[in-house]
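USER:
Try writing one entry.

ASSISTANT:
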Amino acid sequence: MRGRSLHSALLLLTVATCVAVPAAVAANPLPGHFSFSGTETQDDFCGTGKSVTDTFDIHLNVWSAPNQPVDTRNQSESSFVFTNPENGASVIVHNAYSFSDALISGDPNGINVHEWVFKGNAELLRASDGGVLGHDKGQLVVDVTWDGPEFSGQFLGLQIVTDHGGHGLFATGDCSLFVPALGLG
């Protein structure tokens, strides 16, 4: 898993949630409230050939018909703890931000561009001793191009439009922080 970013993982979970419940939410524009928690093993973590345990707790409020000029919007708060079972080292990740998605050009079934906006504490990584390893915060605007429907069509590319606050982890991934902190290198 090279250049992994939790932004992307949480975003995919959010979109899956939005796709799974549109009929129920469309009939009533009130938000849908969702919680997910669990533990999983990620094999070949960040391309190291080693496994880590991922314990997560995610809370989402999702609006698929928000009273705003966007297609979907959510407020999310989540915590992840990645642990190397061989040495007990852990990295704690916290996210708390709003996300919106709007189709800004093109045909939803052909070539199209969506604008994603992240606002808030997008990703805070801490070592188990509390030291900060990395932090994405502020507002990030990204234009994402698809050939076909968003997430089920072919991904063609993305462009960071604005980055106010610093989102280096979104741009480069966070494996360079996880691998040494977990003692996987």
